[in-house]
Every structure is written in C-alpha cells, then in structure tokens.
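As a representative case, the lines below give one protein's residues and fold tokens.
***
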Amino acid sequence: MTRHTPLPDELRRWIADHLPGVDDVTDVSWARGNSMVWRVAAGADMVFVKISPSAREYEREVRGYAHAARALIVGTAPRLIAADPDLQALMSSPLSGRVVRDLPLTQADERRVHQQAGHLLRRWHDHSPPATAHDRAVIRADVAGQAKEAAACLEDTAGHLDDAQRALVQCVVEELPRRTEGMPVVYRHGDHATRNWLFDAAQDTVGLIDFEMAQHGSIADEFVWLHGALWTTRPDLKAAHFNGYGRHLDDDEERLLLLLTARLGVSYLRSGLAKERSDLVERGKLVLTRMTRRAR
C-alpha cells in the first residue's frame, strides 16, 4: 500500500534547521496506521525522518541508536543525526541495501544473510549494558502480562484449537513466568526480523535498522518472529543464523522460544477472530500448528 502523508508544518521547520534546502520528500512508512517515516533529500544529501508512535518508543529508539553506535561497526546501522522529544521526531542517516523481506534471494544467499544477521546481533548483545532492577521488574511484568494474555486467548479460542494446541497454550500460561525468570538478560534489538535487515548485494553486507523496540529481555524473546515465520520450515536458516551468532540456544532457551512463539500464535488467532480478519486467523493457526509439532 502506497501512502502519501505530507510532512506536518512543525516537523518541516525542524527538518529545515538540520537539512536546509529540502527539495524532495517521499513517504516510506510501513503499511500500518501508526507508521510515519519519510525519505527527505536536499540536493545530494538524504536522510530519513520518523515520528515515533509514542514517547516510550521514542525514548527506546534514541537509546537504541546510541547502543548501535557503540556496538556495531560503521555501515551496518544508521546513525542518529538529530532528535526532538517534543515532536518525538528522529532524523537518521541512510543505510545501503534493500529490505531483506522483499528480496527474491537464492537459498544460498538467504543462508549467508542469516549468518551475517546473526553475527550482527551477537555484537549487539555482547555490548549489552547491565540490566537494572527496574529493567528486571519490567521484564517480569511483561512476561506475567503475556501469560495472562495467553490464558485469556485460550478461553476465547478454545473452540478453534485441537487438544494438542490447547495443551500447548496451557503450558504457556503455566511455564512462561518461571522459565523466563532464570534466563540470562540481554539488551535486545526487539524486532529482529527480515523487515529490519538490509542486504547490500554489491558489498555483500547486512545492516540492521529500526530500534524502537530495543529493551532488556531474554535472548529467546529476540527470535520469536523468525522462529514462527521462517525457521520452523527452514532449519538451514536457523542454523546459519546461530553459526553467525556464535552459539546455539540450549534446551531451556529452546523451550522458552517455543512457548513465546505459541503465545504469539494464539494472540494472532484471537485478534483475527475478534476483528474478522482471515489473514490473522490463518497466521495464528499456522504458528500454533508448527509449534505443536515442535513440542512433540
């Protein structure tokens, strides 16, 4: 879906303070209601400008940019040029490459991209600042919320689940808080998915973008989307990613990843049923079917 949201006047004035002579503005937002991103050019200079959906996401993204500058080598992440908390606006440098999710790659190229993405993420995790008491409290509250949500989803979707799927979601409710409690904590990218990887075929490099979900959490939580959407049917991509990462998940982390992914699947299903969206219903059923097979 193409969007053509014009720059708000106040944002346009803020951009002019940092990039005089703007002559081209293109809306490059994701196809969702709260995404507001523009590619802005002034002659040969080009930047990306974003309005964060909330103050919380703005603060997380500013911290994420600072972390990327410390953890990742130049050319593998954009750099923050300017930020304004009142506007919740961020201006960042461009990064070479194209979004991996949209690319028609060979299987060999896919494996190479996943390996490089794993290596990038390991650098990101290895530079994690220590989790504070507040960070750990936020993690516990978030996990408790996910377990509570899974219980509500189970009640609302029980008639659409088979026995094995119901049993797995019940395991999410019962196991998730205690399994997360003992896991190592890292500073997560938070949205580690192919939509946030850029592949530069000419340079054979992978870059990482979009830091608005960056926060402390378990390592397993970093891989939920990849596990549910790709890795279950493409174990070669999972192996390549963790080869790049430098280690594979242990049994406890694998169990936690399965539970977190099942929680996401039943959440998709519940949301799809409530909104009468067949795409979400099918996505939820697919994820739950895959996770149930993994759990056997």
User: Anything to note?
Assistant: The chain has a mean pLDDT of 95. The CA atoms of residues 31 and 238 lie 27 Å apart. The domain at 9-92 is CATH 3.30.200.20 (Phosphorylase Kinase; domain 1). The chain is about 50% helix and 15% strand.
